[in-house]
Amino acid sequence: MIKFIFADSWSPYLVGTLIGVLSWFSFIISRKALGTSTSFARGSAKLGALFLGEKVYDWKYYQKYKPELEWQSMLVIGIVIGSFISAVLSGEFNLAFLPQTEFESILNQNLIGRIFSAFTGGIFLGFGARLAGGCTSGHGISGTFQLSIASWISLVGFFVGGAITAFLIF
After folding, report:
1. Which residues does 84 contact at the CB level (< 8 Å), separation at least 6?
2. For 161-169, which contacts have Cβ atoms below 8 Å and span 24 or more sequence positions?
3. How far are the Cα atoms of 35, 53, 69 from residue 76, in angstroms, in the given order?
4. N or C: which end of the chain has fewer CB within 10 A?
5. Residue among 28, 45, 19 at smallest CA distance from 136
């Protein structure tokens, strides 16, 4: 029974079911949807305050999304810790700093290019998640669970965008 924990990969059906159950518990216990992008927005206020001072907290956006350490921030930390534990248990853990990928690009030729690509991609993903009112977990899991039309449209967009990107890259 416990042997699957040490497997190189887990069944997507099992993991999908467990994420669905986690989403139920999220609604039951906290009365909030499962998602992560808001915690990054809240963390950005804390980071901004280091450089720009407390006036950052007066910005309109941060009036709506109070910069505080809350359960979604703990979820993000748990994802990182859980991923590390999973990689170690499966024997797949290795320490690599932005390894080169199979994607042939000028930016993929050296470490500076890969750092630039990763940073820029992260900015675009974060901006898109906030513009859409949530990330893939917020819309794809929690929003569709609530039968939100906007979330279903977003989910279709995620798959279409992913398919187009995969086609262009590979």
Report:
1. 93
2. 169/103
3. 9, 25, 11
4. N
5. 19
Cα(24)–Cα(42) distance, integer angstroms: 24
| Six token digits for residue 63 | 């009036």
Residue 141 and residue 18 in contact, taking contact as beta carbons nearer than 8 Å: no
Please give the DSSP secondary-structure letter assigned to residue 104: -
d(CA 90, CA 128): 33
**pLDDT single digits (tens) 5-50:** 777 778 889 888 988 898 888 888 888 888 888 888 888 888 888 8
For 2, 98, 137, the CA distances from 36, given in Å and listed in that order, are 29, 23, 7
- Burial zone of 44 (CB within 10 Å; 0-12 exposed, 13-18 middle, 19+ buried): middle
Full-model pTM: 0.71
What does the chain come to in residues?
170
Contact at 8 Å (CB) between 126 and 47?
Answer: no
pLDDT tens per residue across span 88-135? 888 888 877 666 666 666 666 777 877 888 888 888 888 888 888 878
